[in-house]
Specification:
InterPro entries: RNA_pol_sigma-70-like, RNA_pol_sigma-70_dom, RNA_pol_sigma70_r2, RNA_pol_sigma70_r4_t2, RNA_pol_sigma_r2, RNA_pol_sigma_r3/r4-like, WH-like_DNA-bd_sf. By secondary structure, the protein is mainly α. The chain has helices at about 5-15, 20-40, 45-65, 75-95, 120-125, 130-140, 145-155, 160-175. It folds into 2 domains: about 5-90, Rna Polymerase Sigma Factor, Chain: A (Orthogonal Bundle); about 95-175, Arc Repressor Mutant, subunit A. It has 8 helices and no strands. The radius of gyration is 18 Å and the shape is elongated.
Length: about 180
């Protein structure tokens, strides 16, 4: 069965709520690419991303009764995958947080230079950023989290989130113009 949208998706979700393993596998296969695309932005390696996706789907199936059908399923799945990827990275964050924040005052934010690049170019540039810069950039610019939400998720002050974002943008500018 190929899942399109609307009724077929709601039938899939309904069957998953009943614990039907066949439909869980179908839901997994249908949304795997979407979830993997999200996880790859937050994880350092493809293996880490795959682990985050698999862990995310386990959470989806365990809590699918909490899914509200009046909301888009993809948005719910995205939240779970992002949170799962972040949770798996929290152990490493102590090392990331050692990044100096002292010189942040002089960095300004300007218009986005990366607008003309294609997605592959942008992903390659993002992968060159330090971990915390990349994580905050993705959460703020790509997934639309506020600095307060990022601070809550990562256990850092909102001002640090702003600094990491500013530094990420500055590093991206330098990479593009050099």
């Amino acid at each position: 069965m190929h899942v399109s949208t609307g009724t077929a998706e709601s039938d899939l979700i309904s069957q998953c709520k009943q614990g039907n393993i066949k439909y869980q596998e179908m839901l997994y296969k249908h949304f795997y690419g979407f979830a993997m695309g999200i996880a790859l932005r937050y994880c350092l390696t493809r293996d880490d991303a795959m682990e985050a996706v698999n862990d995310g789907f386990i959470k989806v199936f365990k809590s699918i009764d909490n899914y509200q059908p009046d909301k888009p399923f993809k948005a719910w799945l995205r939240t779970i995958v992002v949170n799962t990827a972040i949770d798996s990275r929290r152990k490493e964050m102590k090392q990331w947080l050692n990044t100096e924040l002292d010189n942040a005052a002089g960095i300004s934010t300007g218009s986005t230079i990366i607008a003309d690049l294609n997605a592959r170019d942008i992903m390659q540039l993002l992968n060159k950023l330090p971990n915390m810069h990349r994580l905050v950039f993705n959460m703020y610019e790509v997934d639309g989290y506020s600095h307060d939400e990022i601070a809550g998720q990562l256990g850092i002050p909102a001002s640090s989130s702003r600094v990491y974002l500013t530094r990420a943008k500055e590093k991206l500018r330098k990479m593009i113009t050099s």
